[in-house]
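Exercise: predict the fold of this chain.
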Amino acid sequence: MWNKIIIFCFLLSTYSFGQKEGWIENFPEAFELSVKEGKPILANFTGSDWCGWCIKLDKAVFQTEDFKKWAEENVILLELDFPRRKKLDPEIETNNNYLQSIFKVRGFPTIWIFTVQQQEDKKFSINAQVDERGSGWQKMGYMSTAEAFIQQAENIITNINTVFTEPTPTGGEKE
């Protein structure tokens, strides 16, 4: 009997710690939700079980009530994890590696904020400006407070809305 209880508790703890509350691990799901809700994606490229700065960012920013409330209202949270001890689902690992190459992520933590559009062929296009070194104004790194992080994220979102708003043929803006 005790063996069954211990196994159940272990499985329950593994499940509850596998994915952080509010974060999506599957980028196609995050892309669809972004289009549906009209919110940008905040993508966290992290080494959750080995990267010291990633762990600090998670505790200092992502686990705070201020950040959780802000994120729920303003962005779709996408975690792109590159763990060393935990094994990822092969599809998620492939997807994470794909986005890491698109955004040219070389270090962790790296945060990118971007929007996506769904094309007529049901594929997604990413609205992001990335140079050959992986730099760009939509990129963030470690910050020690939720307030500073949110302020920088809001500045990026404002710029995204300005840069990626398409004008209509009459000179007005698309709705």
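Check your answer against the key: The CA atoms of residues 90 and 96 lie 10 Å apart.
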